[in-house]
Write a structure and sequence with these properties.
This protein is an all-alpha fold. The protein has helices at residues 5-30, 35-44, 55-60, 64-75. The chain has one domain.
C-alpha cells in the first residue's frame, strides 16, 4: 500500500527531526554546550566547511552526518 503525501511528509519531517536531535546531542556532548547554546549555534552559525550553511540548513538538506563529523573534528582540535 502506497503512503499518502501527508504520511510521506510526516516521515520526512520525523527523519529531519531525528537527525537534528542527533546533531544537537553531539554538539551538547562534544562541545560542552548548553541546550540553548546548541540550538542557537545550530540555527545561526554559518559553518565555513559546509558552504556557510548553518547546521539546521545542512540537516534539512540531508547532510546531518557532515555536521556531526564537523562537530567531532572541532572537539578533536580542528580549527575551522
Amino acid at each position: 500500500m502506497a503512503k499518502s503525501p501527508h504520511m510521506r511528509r510526516s516521515t520526512e519531517r520525523t527523519q529531519e527531526l531525528d537527525a537534528l536531535h542527533e546533531v544537537l546531542t553531539v554538539a551538547i556532548d562534544e562541545l560542552e554546550l548548553s541546550f540553548e547554546a546548541a540550538v542557537t549555534w545550530a540555527a545561526c552559525a554559518p559553518l565555513r566547511s559546509l558552504g556557510d550553511r548553518t547546521a539546521v540548513q545542512a540537516v534539512a538538506q540531508g547532510d546531518a552526518a557532515a555536521v556531526i563529523y564537523y562537530v567531532r573534528s572541532i572537539s578533536s582540535g580542528y580549527v575551522g
